[in-house]
UniProtKB/TrEMBL annotation:
Its cofactor is Zn(2+). GO terms for molecular function: 3'-5' DNA helicase activity; ATP binding; ATP hydrolysis activity; DNA binding; zinc ion binding. GO terms for cellular component: primosome complex. Initiates the restart of stalled replication forks, which reloads the replicative helicase on sites other than the origin of replication. Recognizes and binds to abandoned replication forks and remodels them to uncover a helicase loading site. Promotes assembly of the primosome at these replication forks. The keyword ATP-binding applies. GO terms for biological process: DNA recombination; DNA replication initiation; DNA replication, synthesis of primer; double-strand break repair. Zn(2+) 1 binds at residues 450, 453, 489, 492. Residues 484-637 form the Helicase C-terminal domain. Belongs to the helicase family. PriA subfamily. This is Replication restart protein PriA. It comes from the Bacteria. It comes from Cuneatibacter caecimuris. Binds 2 zinc ions per subunit. Zn(2+) 2 binds at residues 459, 462, 476, 479.
Length: 739
DNA sequence: AGCACGCCGACT
DNA sequence: GTCGGCGTGCTC
């Protein structure tokens, strides 16, 4: 049993947002674990306060002689905080972050939240008493009190920010005044309920046989023996949401709470309405646009038991529910469930870890499950349920055709639109129906280069070429840098500069030229930057205010337009060249989802996939709407190269402002982990990141593949040890990424 | 956040 | 001297 315990103090203040180290007394050894709630002496007066053990260790980070001992274990060790701290411990171990980083993701930022909370100082004296109090203060030279009383004379109710800020009063001066009954400090906890008053009561829908079967299978098990996560593999429109609703309902009836994770983009007004209609004010929502304070409010309501359901993106997973019984992850294949910051946790794996801690059930849903999840399901580690039929009988699968762009070129057609797509667009417009055109690249042209020297225009801060935009500027899609399009090539002075490739803006221009009359909307990062940007565009299109919606991937995610009968995928290959082992999977999912947008009410939809690689299995399988076929081909490839889920993969990203420092550290790290893995694993690199430089920071990559996760964890520890005594460690940053 | 410590002006 | 208010800084 380790000698010391790191403890996070149970006080919400910025200055205390770190751990303190305590000695573990003999009688408590073997009884402590990360997440234990303890009582500890704190501060000069050794007053006993509560805290949580975050970590047990033998390494003293503080002078052991001056270290205090843990007092006792505090009762009620089952508090939510304990569960979340234990989860942070799991995240730290599993994804290789520091405990503090893990804690900060799991326990929402408490700092500066207090500031935002509305607190007021109110005067409790009448005119007479105020006068008396003032003269007493003058007599006693109580300057701080006088300052406050003067201000309160003008305005008997002052906001806390002003009292603490401009008037510079501290608790030391305020407390005696409050005790004397001169003032009152009011802390009004204002909860803004984003769900308030939306939607009408919507009674539960009657489930069809397949849906009911899943619900029965799973609810019988909640709190019982089979705790395996469930994967619901249901085609678009098969009614997964109704299953979720019923599962949540039953969870609540059993006295437990539920978290629903959905991709940010799917958190639309309709979604909010749907949940509110069913669960009233017992449901709340979080999203990334909310301020830290607003999100904290909602988490606080959950902690107090005012809620039964929380809906939101990745971070909603950490809702402090004390009786969590169900975690639903909709569209579980979405890459947004993987965090981009340290710790780079995956919501699916982390949800499973949390469910284990609280004895809850995890339900995953997707029309195109991730290869990982389907693999687990086939191996029997997940329970698999299928919803094959679309819930409403009149929707039909679309007709998909694949167009070989090489043949178009041979036939002399250099346009973005193949002959087939153009014909279908004409008839679609002629019939007064709507269409969507999908292109996975925004901007006007792909890149811009000089026709005489061939040099592309590059971002000075990032290692990428700039994208031409319609407004005559060149924009960097990595850091946002933008310059006016130069009149002459900066390196050779030639005036012949031209754009190549295709972006959404250019498609918009081309549609305008080739289909004059057609009403066009464009949706991508540039047009949705403002708040409510998505919503406005989608709603306008839904109301039929445009015939054609052009956009990047955001148009294919979770929004139904009954009027859309044609979907055109202009360049299916773009995502195939990502150079990532997942690029086929991403492409397949994208194409399948895009195709699923067409024809959902009665009218059969048509889909045209344009590609230079019509024979690629991701394209073929998507055209045939055949997930099994895709999975079969994909898993062969992953097995062969031992990529996840057939093996484990750890990526080290080494970043530094100095390329040499990054390179040197990367080399050393590659050797260190290669040493650590031995014959168990395979190390590649160091190599430049696909985009070497972003925002003036160089990034190098080292990969380690192994059959067993533990091999990689050991390698991670070795890498951390290496960085500890690397001379230039302060200049170099190391990030781990497990997948 | 809460508490000790030290500074400073006022008063027995 | 020394008492009490008030600002500062530390808490394993």
């Amino acid at each position: 049993m380790p000698e010391f315990a790191n403890v996070i103090v149970d006080i919400s203040h910025e200055r205390l947002d770190r751990t303190f180290q305590y000695r573990i007394p003999e009688r408590l050894k073997d009884r402590l674990q990360p997440g234990s709630r303890v009582r500890i002496p704190f501060g000069g007066g050794n007053r006993m306060i509560e805290g949580y053990v975050t970590e047990l260790t033998d390494r003293a980070e503080y002078e052991p002689g001056r270290m205090k001992e843990i007092g006792e274990i505090a009762g009620g060790g089952l508090a939510v905080e304990s569960e979340l701290i234990a989860l942070a411990g799991w995240i730290k171990e599993h994804y290789g972050s520091t405990m503090i980083q893990a804690l900060k993701t799991v326990m929402p930022v408490k700092d500066r939240v207090k500031e935002k909370e509305e607190r007021w100082v109110r005067l409790c004296l009448n005119q007479e008493e105020l006068g008396a109090a003032r003269s007493l203060c003058i007599k006693k030279h109580q300057t701080a009190r006088l300052r406050l009383l003067e201000a309160l004379k003008e305005n008997p109710r002052l906001p806390w920010a002003e009292v603490a800020g401009r008037l510079k009063l501290t608790m030391a001066a305020l407390r005696p005044m409050e005790e004397a009954g001169q003032i009152r400090i009011e802390g009004r906890q204002s909860y803004r309920n984003p769900a308030a008053g939306t939607g009408l009561e919507t009674p539960p829908v009657r489930l069809n046989e397949a849906q009911q079967f899943i619900v029965n299978q799973l609810t019988g098990e909640i709190g019982r023996k089979d705790r395996r996560p469930a994967l619901i593999f249901g085609v678009t429109g098969s009614g997964k949401t109704e299953v979720y609703m019923e599962l949540i309902s039953r969870t609540i009836s059993a006295g437990r709470q539920a978290i629903v994770l959905i991709p940010e983009i799917a958190l639309t007004f309709q979604t909010v309405q749907r949940f509110c209609g069913r669960f009233g004010d017992r449901v709340s929502f979080v999203n990334s646009r909310m301020s830290a304070g607003e999100r904290y409010d909602q988490f606080e309501r959950a902690r107090k038991g005012e809620l039964d359901v929380m809906v939101g993106p990745r971070s909603a997973l950490f809702t402090p529910f004390g009786r969590l019984g169900l975690i639903i992850i909709d569209e579980e294949h979405e890459h947004t469930y993987k965090s981009e910051n340290m710790p780079r946790y995956h919501a699916r794996e982390t949800a499973i870890a949390r469910a284990e801690l609280c004895g809850g059930l995890v339900v995953l849903g997707s029309a195109t499950p991730s290869v990982e999840s389907y693999y687990q399901a086939l191996a029997g580690r997940f329970r698999l349920f299928r919803l094959k039929k679309r819930a409403s009988a009149d929707s039909v699968l679309p007709q998909v055709s694949v167009v070989d762009l090489r043949k178009e070129l041979e036939a002399g057609n250099q346009s973005v639109f193949s002959r087939e797509l153009r014909k279908k667009m004409e008839s679609c417009l002629g019939n007064g129906q709507q269409m969507m055109l999908f292109l996975n690249r925004r901007g006007y042209a792909g890149f811009v280069s000089c026709r005489s020297c061939g040099k592309p225009m590059k971002c000075p801060h990032c290692d990428v070429s700039l994208t031409a935009h319609r407004n005559g500027r060149l924009v960097c899609h990595y850091c946002g840098y933008s310059v006016p399009l130069p009149k002459a090539c900066p390196s050779c002075g030639s005036p012949y500069i031209a754009g190549f490739g295709l972006g959404t803006q250019k498609v918009e221009a081309l549609v305008g030229r080739e289909f004059p009359g057609a009403r066009v909307l464009r949706m991508d990062y540039d047009t949705t930057a403002g708040k409510g940007g998505h919503q406005a565009i989608l709603e306008a299109f839904g109301r039929g205010e445009a015939d054609i919606l052009i956009g990047t991937q955001m148009i294919v995610k979770g929004h139904d337009f009954p009027g859309v009968t044609l979907v055109g995928i202009l360049a299916a290959d773009l995502s195939l060249h990502a150079g990532d082992y997942r690029s086929s999977e991403v492409t397949f999912q994208l194409l399948t989802q895009a195709a699923g947008r067409a024809g959902r009410r009665g009218i059969p939809g048509e889909v045209v996939i344009q590609t230079y690689m019509p024979e690629h299995y991701a394209v073929q399988a998507a055209a045939a709407q055949d997930y099994e076929e895709f999975y079969h081909r994909e898993i062969l490839y992953r097995n062969l190269l031992k990529y996840p889920p057939a093996g484990c993969l750890m990526a080290l990203q080494i970043s530094s402002a100095s390329e040499e420092a990054a390179e040197e550290a990367a080399r050393g790290l590659a050797n260190a982990i290669s040493d650590s893995c031995g014959t168990e694993g395979q190390v590649t690199g160091p190599a430049d990141a696909p985009v070497l430089k972003v925002r003036d920071i160089y990034r190098k990559l080292v990969y380690a593949k192994a059959a067993k996760y533990s091999t990689l964890i050991a390698a991670k520890d070795r890498a951390e040890a290496y960085m500890k005594d690397f001379p230039g460690a302060s200049k170099v940053q190391l990030q781990f990424d497990f997948s």
